[in-house]
Amino acid sequence: MNELDQLVAEARAEFGQADAPADLENAKARYLGKAGRLTELLKGLAQLPPDEKKARGAAINVAKQQVEAALTERRQALADAELEQQLKAEALDVSLPGRKRGNAGLHPVTRTMERIEAIFASMGFDVADGPEIEADWFNFTALNTPADHPARSMHDTFYVEGGHLLRTHTSPMQIRHAVQHVKKHRALLDAGQPMPDIRVIAPGRTYRVDSDATHSPMFHQVEGLWVGENVSFKDLKSVYVSFLRAFFETDDMQIRFRPSYFPFTEPSAEIDMMFNSGPLKGRWLEVSGSGQVHPQVIRNMGLDPERYIGFAFGSGIDRLTMLRYGVNDLRLFFDGDLRFLSQFK
Ligand code: DAH
Q: What pTM value is reported for the model?
């Protein structure tokens, strides 16, 4: 191997050992820099006799080109390696499943509420909303349940400072809504003219000190009220029967009004239903309290019980939801377990 081939081989070896661009540039300087080996060789040409100069010059240039080619190749290799390194460090695993935004769904009890509202709205009922922190007057006294009334013992609840309480039922909405309605139509009443009927439902949250598989301290009820001059028990019956048929999407059921007692209705009835088919077939199920609004309650609404007569009902929304979807533990509605809730989407 002549000395030029030797030099090219050494340059290749040194470039190959340079692992960083800075090392490579230092190695380059040793061959191609101002005092580099090839530069020195080219300078030396001046001392040669003219007939040798040409061949020697050409040979050195070939060597120089080879060194430059080796340099370019190594530069590229180092740049490739750096890019490779960077890509590895910033790698994304594109095979991971994406994170999708989940589809939300309405809570089964909310679905039932909306369903109840739609059915009663189709029968001409308004939908009213009222406070959950209620005054004693609306929750009890105005509903013919004075302070010493034994019926209060079945409505133990949570008391708030200042004599207010968490409402034990939606029945206080009967008074609240009726009073508003009477106020709105005061002029007609004063002129002895007929007032439009009160026809309203009031769904919402209610509270009692109760907790087991079928009772929750917070639960949901829907109140219904129809007051007018010409309303009768048959109106209550037809409205409620129509509601149950629409709600459960079947006529294949029996419905009975069983005599009962509530302080704010007289007479009072418990509404029971029985499916003639399906998994709940043949069992009487209690779905609502109801009755003719007590004359004292009509008076507390600001109306004359000799002229106005009312019918009311109060139903458990959670219960209706359990029957509709075949859920047997009420607590599932309030645990917030998505495995349960997502079945209703
Ligand atoms: N408020 C009663 C309860 O929670 C249910 C009820 C019974 C409501 C009869 C009514 C009714 O409107 O007429 O036990």
A: 0.73
